[in-house]
Write a sequence for this structure.
C-alpha cells in the first residue's frame, strides 16, 4: 500500500501556529483547495463542520481526525497539520490537539483503494506508539514513510 | 471471554476502523478472543461468521448509526457502547463487561 497516494503532500504543514480549531481547519482546507483536491474551501468546510456536529473528532492524546465527505472533493486524500502550539478541540480525553488529520472524501466514493487507505490511517492511530512517532514528524515524506511502515 | 462486535460511524471513514482497532487491541491485551465486523464506506469487512456468533459470550455494538444484520444476534447478549467510551477506555470497558458476565453465570 502506497500512502503517498492518499496523503496529499501539498497539504501537509509542520510547525503551523494556529489561533484555534476554526483557523487550522480553514488553513488545511485552503491547502487542499490550492492543491486542486477540492473545488471550494467554504463548501468543504461546511461538510467538515456537519461531521463535527455529529460526534467528537478529537480522539485523544492530542490528535484529531476531522473529515468531510463532500461533493466538492475531486479526489479523496488526507491533509495533515502538525501544530507548533496546541489548541482546544472537543476530545474524548479533553487534552488540547497538536496533530490534525483532515480527510477529504469524494461523496460518491467509488475508489475503494482510497477509502481503504484512509481506514488504515485511522486504524494506525489506535496505537499510542504510532501516535507518538507521528507527533515527532519533521517532513511531509516522513508521514508517508511512517504509515507505510505501520502496515 | 469470546467477543464479537460491530463498529459503524456516521461517515464510515475513520471512527469505524479506529474504534474496531481499539477494541481488538484492548481485547488482545486482556487475553480475550475477539472478532469485530466493520460497516463503513468500504462496505462490510471482517464479516462475522455464524460460528463466531454462536460461540460468543457477548456482542458489542459500537455505532453512531443503526447497524445492519442485528438479527444475527437475536439469541445473544448485546451491549451497545458509545464510540467515545471505547476510544477513551477500552480495557476498562471490557473488564466491566467481563465482570458483569461472570456475575450473571450460575455458580458451578
Amino acid at each position: 500500500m502506497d500512502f503517498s497516494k492518499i496523503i496529499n503532500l501539498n497539504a501537509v504543514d509542520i510547525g503551523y501556529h494556529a489561533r484555534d480549531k476554526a483557523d487550522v481547519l480553514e488553513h488545511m482546507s485552503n491547502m487542499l483547495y490550492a492543491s486542486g483536491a477540492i473545488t471550494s474551501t467554504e463548501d468543504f468546510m461546511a461538510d467538515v463542520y456537519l461531521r463535527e456536529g455529529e460526534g467528537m473528532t478529537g480522539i485523544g492524546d492530542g490528535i484529531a481526525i476531522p473529515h468531510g465527505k463532500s461533493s466538492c472533493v475531486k479526489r479523496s486524500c488526507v491533509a495533515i497539520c502538525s501544530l507548533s502550539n496546541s489548541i482546544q478541540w472537543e476530545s474524548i480525553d479533553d487534552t488540547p490537539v497538536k496533530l490534525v488529520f483532515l480527510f477529504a472524501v469524494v461523496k460518491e466514493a467509488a475508489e475503494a483503494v482510497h477509502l481503504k487507505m484512509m481506514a488504515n490511517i485511522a486504524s494506525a492511530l489506535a496505537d499510542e506508539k504510532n501516535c507518538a512517532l507521528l507527533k515527532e514528524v519533521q517532513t511531509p515524506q516522513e508521514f508517508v514513510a511512517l504509515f507505510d511502515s505501520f502496515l | 471471554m469470546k467477543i464479537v462486535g460491530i463498529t459503524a460511524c456516521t461517515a464510515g471513514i475513520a471512527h469505524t476502523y479506529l474504534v474496531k482497532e481499539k477494541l481488538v487491541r484492548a481485547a488482545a491485551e486482556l487475553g480475550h478472543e475477539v472478532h469485530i465486523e466493520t460497516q463503513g464506506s468500504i462496505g462490510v469487512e471482517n464479516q462475522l461468521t455464524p460460528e463466531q456468533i454462536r460461540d460468543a459470550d457477548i456482542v458489542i455494538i459500537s455505532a453512531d448509526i443503526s447497524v445492519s444484520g442485528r438479527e444475527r444476534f437475536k439469541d445473544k447478549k448485546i451491549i451497545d457502547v458509545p464510540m467515545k467510551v471505547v476510544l477513551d477506555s477500552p480495557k476498562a470497558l471490557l473488564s466491566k463487561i467481563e465482570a458483569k458476565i461472570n456475575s450473571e453465570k450460575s455458580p458451578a
In short: Residues 60 and 92 of chain A are 6 Å apart (CA to CA). The radius of gyration of chain A is 14 Å. The domain at 3-150 of chain A is CATH 3.40.930.10 (Mannitol-specific EII; Chain A).
